[in-house]
Amino acid sequence: MAVFGVQLVITMVMASFLQKLSSNFSFARWLLSYRLVHYLHPTNEELKTIAGVRDSSRSKGKKGRDRFTDQNKDSEFLVPKNLQMELDSAVVQPVELFQLQFYTEYQWLLDFSVCAVFVYFVTELYYFLLAPNDEVNLSVLWCILVIGFSLKVLFSVTALYFSGEEALGERSLCLMAGLFFFVAAMVVLITDENFLEFGLDAAYTSFNKSAYSFLENQGLNSSGPTSQLMFKLMLAVWCGFIGAFFTFPGFRFARMHQDSLTYCDKSPLQKLILHLSFLSPMLVTLLWVKPVCRDYLTHKTWPGMNETIMTPSVFETTRIVVVVVVVVLRFILMPRYLQSYLNLAPQKLGKLRKEAGRISNIDLQRMVARIFYYLCVVTLQYLAPLLLCLFTTFLLKTLGEYQWSSYFFPVLEREDQSFSTPSVKPTTETLSRADNDSILGTSQQFSLAMSSLKQVFTPVLYRGVFGFMTWWICTVWFTTSAIGLIYHSYFFN
């Protein structure tokens, strides 16, 4: 009995690639190198020349330790804020990326995600051609790891706003956002399923019945693992954390979107694509509103048509495809958004010229250099929500047992079958035969364990939970981006 088969070979090949070749062939490094332009901060000599500051270290003919002390004193000086100067630009080189904050986390996350996407689609092709029934889908493990890495990165980036004594406003905003989205999630979770069709009620019923049968077969008396209130409360807590993690990435994306629009005034097509990218998560949100999409696409018959536009299986697959298209679109536009972020350096210098007074040369240099130093942090704020949404959708498709081929082949509805699947209980004869051969016994025990888990964690449960998670990620990301756009448009500028 095959447990992993070909999938194990694919996993080992990609793991070897990550370990051996990722240092030389890194997609993450290629994406930022030679594609973006960053701005160099002016040197002390350039500032002194432009501002007309006299170099006292050269005028004084001191020697030894006194001269060294004078140079340290002269390393910081004041220049006018309205200094007329242009920043030099340079193409981002690979060697410059290693000094950036969070570069290691960015490279690992993106390279691992690319390998996970490759493993996922190769596994999907393998399942489509051969349709093995006795193998564990290892691509699910890759998806879970990417989701875990993305959440860890978001937590680390959010923790930056809690460090330092001057981060009181950022901490308060994160906490308020977390509480707000926690309350909003509780409101959403009690909404009628005829309006927001997540299928959470059916998911809980399936899980409760399956778990009760499993515990009963094991000789345990229980009314079920948990109540529906606790089930939805745990989801609401997760929603609150996602809202807190997505607050500053949403604000950052709104600022980059606003700046990107200023650089394509002469190209209406680029503006249209950018606006479509910004509004695309709202389209995903509407796909789970039953009166808006499902009723019109799968229930209503339009004039001149003998049947509905989509079957229910095609509609479910279409929602998954739309999420993937939205993620791909934003990933393609990522260099443009990152370049708009790097262009903040000359923008800040232009705003500084409008102010009166003087500024230290160190503060001026730090203001320019800080933009490039935090490039990987901004990239992770843009990338981590994308990966979180993409691989949650992959889990929804695989564990929910949806089919990519539903557009071409009719798929029978199997929603009611998951409630009445017979429980699997290992018999004494099976265990005695398994003891005769250790390898065969281990394989059979593992298969029995996986069969038992499949009876508890049914496709109906996965469809409800991961469908809600996908919808919530897209909804929160659009909400924070929209609030950030309003803030930057009417209060910040």
From TrEMBL:
<keyword id="KW-1133">Transmembrane helix</keyword>
<feature type="transmembrane region" description="Helical">
    <location>
        <begin position="173"/>
        <end position="191"/>
    </location>
</feature>
<feature type="transmembrane region" description="Helical">
    <location>
        <begin position="309"/>
        <end position="333"/>
    </location>
</feature>
<feature type="transmembrane region" description="Helical">
    <location>
        <begin position="272"/>
        <end position="289"/>
    </location>
</feature>
<keyword id="KW-0812">Transmembrane</keyword>
<keyword id="KW-0325">Glycoprotein</keyword>
<feature type="transmembrane region" description="Helical">
    <location>
        <begin position="371"/>
        <end position="396"/>
    </location>
</feature>
<dbReference type="Pfam" id="PF10268">
    <property type="entry name" value="Tmemb_161AB"/>
</dbReference>
<protein>
    <submittedName>
        <fullName>Transmembrane protein 161B-like isoform X1</fullName>
    </submittedName>
</protein>
<feature type="transmembrane region" description="Helical">
    <location>
        <begin position="460"/>
        <end position="487"/>
    </location>
</feature>
<feature type="signal peptide">
    <location>
        <begin position="1"/>
        <end position="15"/>
    </location>
</feature>
<feature type="transmembrane region" description="Helical">
    <location>
        <begin position="229"/>
        <end position="251"/>
    </location>
</feature>
<dbReference type="InterPro" id="IPR019395">
    <property type="entry name" value="Transmembrane_161A/B"/>
</dbReference>
<feature type="transmembrane region" description="Helical">
    <location>
        <begin position="108"/>
        <end position="127"/>
    </location>
</feature>
<comment type="similarity">
    <text>Belongs to the TMEM161 family.</text>
</comment>
<keyword id="KW-0732">Signal</keyword>
<feature type="transmembrane region" description="Helical">
    <location>
        <begin position="139"/>
        <end position="161"/>
    </location>
</feature>
<keyword id="KW-0472">Membrane</keyword>
